[in-house]
Amino acid sequence: MNSRHFLLITCPGQGHINPTLQLAKRLIQAGARVTFATTVRGHREIKAYPSLEGLSYASFSDGFDDGTKPTDDPTHIMSEFKRVGSQTLTKLILSLSNDHHGAVSFLIYSLLLPWAADVARDMGIPSALLCIQSAAAFAIYCHYFNSKDGMYEIYSSDPPNSIQLQGLPPLASTDLPSYLLPNSPHASVLPTFQEHIRTLEKDANPCVLLNTFDALEVEAIKTVDNMNLTTIGPLIPSAVFDGKDGHSDSLSVVCDLFEGSEDYLHWLSSKPTHSVVYVSFGSMVVMQRKQTEEILHGLVESGRPFMWVIRSSENIGREEADDMIKSKSREEEQGLIVPWCSQVEVLCHNSVGCFLTHCGWNSTLESMAAGVPVVACPHFSDQTTNAKLVEEVWGTGIKARVNEEGFVDREEIRKCVEMMMGGGEKGEEIRRNVKRWKTLAAQAVKEGGSSEEHLKLFLVD
Fold this sequence. Notes:
Elements: E1 5-9, H1 14-29, E2 33-39, H2 40-45, E3 46-48, E4 55-60, H3 74-97, E5 106-110, H4 115-122, E6 127-131, H5 135-145, H6 152-155, E7 162-163, E8 171-172, H7 190-202, E9 207-210, H8 214-222, E10 228-231, H9 239-242, E11 252-253, H10 263-269, E12 276-280, H11 289-302, E13 306-309, H12 318-328, E14 335-338, H13 343-348, E15 352-357, H14 361-370, E16 374-376, H15 383-394, E17 397-399, H16 410-421, H17 425-445, H18 450-460
């Protein structure tokens, strides 16, 4: 096992980088050597890399090393990524074979990089897809894009009102990953997801590593035939389980940090147990100004303390949000606006009682493992599917409903927060569910747990 050299490649987004890094760490703990690679741009934006024996870093080009312009055609971007990425990944694998790292013996690639499997096949290297979304989302992609009876060719312009997968509630079209819908602004990635499934079908023994755990999604996993699905999650910082500092357990990506940014920990510590609403919509969501204002008003009107991560790219600035809080709130320190935080540390802080989230898969797993109930405000991608599962399958939170204008209004925010934080029967039931899933998530990754055992078997195959 010690002679195996894994090359892990991923897109530069935070949601891609973080779980891939966690897998790299687990492979190293099992005795393997790992090279972690992302695009030249992504590599440049990473502020600090964890230093671990057996872990090295590299980069490959996506054809846009100096960045893309807003006018760039998304279809052209994906096509160029495939063309240039295939060339530079080949060069990277050859260069690693000629230095002290030794030849790459296995390639693991993340979502949006299906062409990497073709590069590996051409070079005689086995490969696996690391699915950084839920097993349910992956099952939907298989259901839509498989070459035998895939639904996408039939329903590409007129999707059915709902689809039914074994063990899951009926999924309305609005519960599906957003890019599957007609006229989606993210439809440019559809060919890439189709290519993922068709590429796996070329392999005699296609391997997919899932960032989930058996107890959470056993039914969804059963719906996928003819693929070796291996659950190895949750791929989240170990600090969620052991309570240690989460900073050294994740990459520090360049963001709008400010002096004293960790003052939020002191602020959290000044609040009563389970009293704070933590608010974050990830690194990609940019909400319309009206939606941001409605959420802010709803939080203030809830009367509960809240901490909200608002990035510099948001359409309402932190200073403006601070002014709104001061003018509307009944107490001076009801709300704290920050540009960045260590999410793991915040979710594990005993003052946090609820997470208002976009329901990205990493955030969904982290909140579950930390035992924090959620209010889901999904926007795009798999977030809509995750929100459905959170509310109707796992019972770890509720989904905020949009009004006739397509916004979640302030009253809905206030009502959802009160349901999660108050003493009502529904909130109590959700907190019991979260506690149960927290225990099961911890069991999956500990010694002898299902995900830990699956990873061991993957390494010896």
